[in-house]
Write a structure and sequence with these properties.
Distance between the termini: 40 Å
Shape: elongated
Number of strands: 6
Oligomer: single chain
Radius of gyration: 20 Å
């Protein structure tokens, strides 16, 4: 792979780092040949600092490492996409992503996507797990760990059953929403992208 990459006149190539689960772009950094080799060898991101003129291992001091899931290069072979599982915030400010500021937000009516909320929720949960804001219920779940999350999934599944047996549509929609939320939290805790679940559904049922 390294032989295929076209480094610029300074021996660098831009590396776009993306959360493999939420698909959120986390940061843009640069790699030289040595940092690219280290990234491949260690399965964690290494970059080249243009200001300090040295290699740096993401998370070496903060602990917020990024485990590499997959690496790709573009059609011109002069940019790299790094899909990662982040352990904590990507940004030095403590934010989940370095791209958290808006330049010029336009109030444009976006096309309706009935499943957009799932994409929004998946990104939000990734932020919550990374930043662990104080007082957040999601922070509580991630801090307590998988046993607490599984308990909540079980409880909410039971509530769905009761609501359905009662033929109460209002109650049922609330309980299903609670169940979906806690299932999404579980997927994030397990580092399993929702896309993989949807792919299974597609493979099972398309054409049937």
């Amino acid at each position: 792979m390294i032989e295929s990459i076209k480094f610029d006149q300074n021996g660098l190539v831009p590396a776009i780092v993306q959360d493999a689960a939420s698909k959120e772009v986390l940061t843009l950094a640069y790699m030289n040949e040595e940092s690219l080799k280290k990234t491949i060898e260690t399965k964690e991101t290494w970059f080249y600092s243009r200001s300090r003129q040295e290699l740096w291992h993401k998370g070496a001091t903060s602990g917020n490492t990024q485990t590499v899931v997959e690496m790709r290069y573009d059609c011109d072979q002069d940019a790299i996409l790094v899909l990662v599982q982040p352990e904590g915030p990507a940004c030095h400010t403590g934010a989940y992503t370095c791209f958290s500021e808006t330049i010029d937000k336009q109030e444009v009516q976006a096309p309706q996507d009935r499943f957009q909320i799932l994409n929004t929720l998946e990104t939000l949960l990734a932020e919550r797990e990374s930043e662990l804001p104080e007082g957040s219920y999601t922070t509580y779940l991630f801090t307590e760990g998988v046993d607490k999350i599984l308990k909540k999934v079980g409880e909410e599944a039971g509530e769905v059953i009761i609501a359905a047996k009662n033929r109460d549509h209002d109650e049922l929609k609330w309980e299903v929403a609670d169940l979906l939320f806690h299932l999404m939290v579980l997927l994030r805790e397990q580092k399993l992208p929702l896309d993989e679940v949807l792919n299974v559904l597609e493979e099972r049922h398309v054409g049937k």
